[in-house]
Design a protein that fits this description.
Distance between the termini: 36 Å
CATH architecture: 3-Layer(aba) Sandwich
CATH topology: Rossmann fold
Strand content: 15-25%
Order of helices and strands: HHHEHEHEHEHEHEE
Number of helices: 8
Number of domains: 1
Number of strands: 7
Structural class: alpha/beta
Strand order of the largest sheet: 3-2-1-4-5-7-6
Bound molecules: S-adenosylmethionine
Helix content: 40-55%
């Protein structure tokens, strides 16, 4: 995705006027940049602090992350969870898992996080609901599958947050199959009478969905 979808000066201003992440997460960003390929996969401060805020407001006990990478968003969500909360993370990249675990071990919130290696659709079949909170941020080809499956598993009042729903703006003029999946996912959410949602034009787009009570 381009570095800035939103006007660069506006995004910089929002970044500078958002709470900083804790020092451990700043170190995680630095180390991801130095040691990992495609470090731009990491969501960053605006999305991370939004996840922390939503988690702290809703205090989820059973949370799920689909697409963990180096653990930045996982630790952001875990930060807002109660001490006995459990966040299950699905990830296919063993290097990213090893990297993330070194930071989970150093974090006071790391004990809340379990990592499951493997394709998320397969992992989802092994998990039981109900879920209080899910962050979807893995392969876009499966976004609609992830949404529909997680929607079934989410309790009334629970949240589902999907990243990259603007898909660098390609949802406006879809050309590829993956573009179509993003468009279809956003449409299905907007037309689902069982949920309410806010489509935030934050960074690459963040769709915040709440299953109605
Ligand atoms: C955009 S990155 C996640 C970034 C992370 N949520 C953050 O904010 O720092 C997407 C991750 O999904 C993982 N992934 C891709 N396909 C997957 C699949 N089918 N199941 C589980 N994880 C997958 C990739 O290995 C990658 O680490």
């Amino acid at each position: 995705m381009p570095e800035y979808l939103i006007d660069e000066a506006v995004e910089d201003y929002a970044f500078l006027n958002t709470s900083a992440e804790p020092p451990l997460l700043q170190e995680l960003i630095d180390q991801t940049n130095v040691n990992m390929g495609w470090p731009q996969k990491l969501s960053g401060r605006l999305v991370g602090r939004t996840l922390k805020m939503l988690s702290a407001l809703t205090r989820p006990k059973r949370a799920l992350e689909i697409g963990m990478f180096t653990g930045y968003s996982a630790l952001s969500i875990a930060e807002g969870m109660p001490d006995d909360g459990k966040l299950t993370c699905c990830e296919t990249n063993p290097r990213a898992i090893d990297f993330a675990k070194t930071f989970f071990e150093r974090s006071e919130h790391g004990h809340k996080i379990d990592v499951i290696f493997g394709r998320a659709m397969e992992t989802l079949d092994t998990l039981e609901g109900p879920l209080d909170f899910t962050f979807v941020d893995a392969d876009k080809r499966n976004y609609l599958n992830y949404y529909l499956r997680v929607r079934e598993m989410t309790r009334p009042g629970g949240l589902i947050v999907l990243d990259n729903v603007l898909w660098s703006g390609k949802v406006l003029q879809p050309e590829s199959e993956i573009d179509d999946v993003l468009v279809e996912t956003n449409r299905r959410i907007a037309e689902d009478p069982g949920v309410e949602n806010v489509f935030l034009t934050l960074r690459d787009g963040l769709n915040v969905v709440r299953v109605k009570d």
